[in-house]
Amino acid sequence: MSHPPVPSQHEFKGVPLLHKLPALPVVEGTDPARCPQDAFRLAIADQLAKILGVDAKDAFLAAAPGGREADFKVVLPRFRLPAKIDELKEKVTSAFEPNAYLERVTSNGPAVLFFVNNQTLVDLTLATVQDMTYGEGAAIVDGEKRPSYGSNLNGRGKRVLVEFSSPNIAKPFHAGHLRSTIIGAFIANLYEANGWEVKRLNYLGDWGKQFGLLALGWRRFGSEEELAKDAVQHLFDVYVQINKLAEGPEGEKIHDEARAFFKGMEDGVHENLVEWEKFRNMSIERYKQTYERLNIHFDVYTGESQVKKENLKRTMEQLRGADFVEREKNGALLIDLTKYKLEKTVIERVDGTPLYITRDIVEAQQRWEDFGGFDKMIYVVASQQNLHLAQFFKVLELMGFSWAQKEADALLHINFGMVLGMSTRKGTVVFLDHILDETKERMHEVMRKNEAKYAQLEDPEGTADIVGMTAVKIQDMAGKRINDYNFDWQRMFSFEGDTGPYLQYNHVRLCSMQRTNAQDGLVLPLEDLDISTMKTDLLLTPEALEIVWLLATWPDVVRTASRDHQASTIVTFCFKLTHAISSAWEKLIVKGQDRDVALTRLWLYRCAKDVLGSALRLLTITPLERM
Ligand code: ARG
């Protein structure tokens, strides 16, 4: 398991350098110890507060990235001060005092432009990366040190439940489930990096009449041997076969028997439940293998079957008495949500049985109780189910649960578009494992072509698998979630362009650089690096500054992603960083340089490697050291 960055739980006051720099105002929600950009923005806020008398927090928020023009810029009209903008500009530029954070100021239009002291930027950023990766600022989890640079404590004391993946037993694990799995696991990591306590839930489709059919199918077509080999595949095959049979002349009889079997399950008939549970457990074991391959895990395997009878009863009683629920003529229970533009939804069938939405309503309530409450509950489900999610969120709100009210802002549907054209060489089966196997094989073919490198790999199969998973994940997360995308075998595997293999290649290159130089006696210790020996004034070149600037923004990128819930925010950062590193490659040379020059540059590259590694791990990807 390769873990995402998490914040250090002990009080971390920041690197020693920070305390030698001018004091900064204290502003809620900022953390200059963990986030170097905050330090510079607070330095700007400090000056503006003193010169213009504005609130330091407002000024902090006003300090935006300056793009091509400057490091930061502040648009003055946003303060709504009772003075002419030109006068305010004049006031700021003339009263501005350069210090260790800020070098100079100019203006353009209604904006004041700030330029940071690059030496401080380099020193503070690299020292912070170093310390939060290997030193005092690193996190300790289960007695082990883990990188924490990029993480923050904004979510401290808050709990989030993230439900994702949620396949249906005996049915294919399709592209929609794959996206939910990839995006959901990322969202969970992201909340963890933002200081939240995270519970990862898998809500299986593991209840319903189809289990009656499956049980009948099992009797006719089941094989213990096949089940043990691959439960997910075998149960699907059995299910397909019995469905075929159920379409034929025996159909009616089969459906009646299936219904009876499921009724037995509902009534708690022991044998029926034992059989069903075997299918469920073996499917979960099989799913776990796939999740492991994807570097993903769950805290809880819940599912439609786990909705407790007594809870269902309690909720139905409450709903029956509610003024927003109607009984139809035929006896079904219905909620009319048309005034919220959410159509109508049936919550109890004519025969008194609950529906998919009914279970979701009860399950949500049950989770609230089982987990001792939550501050957020996130459902990572395809946008085809937008209406379903909106409906049951609305019902929970109408039922009066405090956590379901708009103000609580606790229920969140993270939706996403479709994957188009996902099929294997052999055909159109969309079994996830087939896709992943083929991904690995194709990646393996590509890697074999480079014989020299290939020969050095300890575990070529495992490596091919990881690069393959990276290819699939980056393709999935590179765009905005809501967009559909084409599953593109050709492009996904390319080592050029913005692909997963390209990112792994860059990480590997940075690792190999550390290795080969160590062989030449240029060793950078991890924990005991004496950064005062680093000649960071050598890093004031455009190429080095470009990298440092990106490293400094990383904690901000993590915060931004926690607001937009877009994995693409992180992926884009990875590509910017790798592009900056590629551009530096020929200018910031290590080989053949004086020892201190070489070591300082190696340090910069190592910090870049560490941050790239953290970004990949946040995306659930295991960064490779060789490939
Ligand atoms: N099993 C469902 C499906 O495959 C997805 C479950 C989504 N989550 C939920 N709480 N309804 O369509």
From TrEMBL:
Highest taxon listed in the record's lineage: Eukaryota
GO CC annotations on file: mitochondrion
Reaction(s) catalysed by this chain's protein: tRNA(Arg) + L-arginine + ATP = L-arginyl-tRNA(Arg) + AMP + diphosphate
Record GO biological process: arginyl-tRNA aminoacylation; mitochondrial translation
NCBIfam families in alphabetical order: argS
Family as reported in the entry's similarity comment: Belongs to the class-I aminoacyl-tRNA synthetase family.
Listed name of the protein: arginine--tRNA ligase
Originating species: Malassezia cuniculi
Gene that encodes it: SYR1
